[in-house]
Fold:
Amino acid sequence: MTDKSIVSVPASMRAVCANETSRYAICGVAVLPPRPGVEDRAWFAATNGRIAVIARGDVQHLGDSGGVRIVPAELLTHSNSPDEIEIDGSECKNRVRGMFRDCVDGRFLPMATVLPEITAENLASGEYHAVRLDASLMAHLAMAVSDDGAVTLFLPRSISKAVVMLGATANRRAAGVLRTANPVLAHPHCNDPSEVFEMDRARYEEIRCEYLAAEAAAKPEPQASQP
Structure:
């Protein structure tokens, strides 16, 4: 019997971690072990208190505890490659950098309170409106029209119309527009944008449900603060 696990933390997680632990966020990445006999990859979750991300990652070796561990953010690099982390009881090690840290104390927020359910019905009813955007262009535009990066978006229902963006700060008189990306280009075998958005909706629901099942199976139950 061993409690040692070796996991590959996705590179995307580091940017979402909080800079320090608070009541709203934990400065680390939660590792949820795979469900025995169901899946062979771990789930990872991170939040800075305002945004949150969940992602799959590889497991090279799985310990026997079956519990959730929180890897300290300072063990993670800013590279484009996953970080190979060894978790041995309450201690974490970056196997490439050779750096050791204790696992972060606390329990990670149950993501069931964060991840909304998106059904075909509430997408069709307009409760949720799907639009495809170039996120890098949107970030550049937000910097141009807002002092603090906060913006108001007016989302069109037609992909032929542009998104209108206004800065949230009262002192800057600036507005921007951003063309929506044609969702059909991301799925060439589809001809109808609504069909593409339904595929994406179903994919999101699959991800959400799989994560919540892993969360329910893990122990102790994750808990932290909501973004």
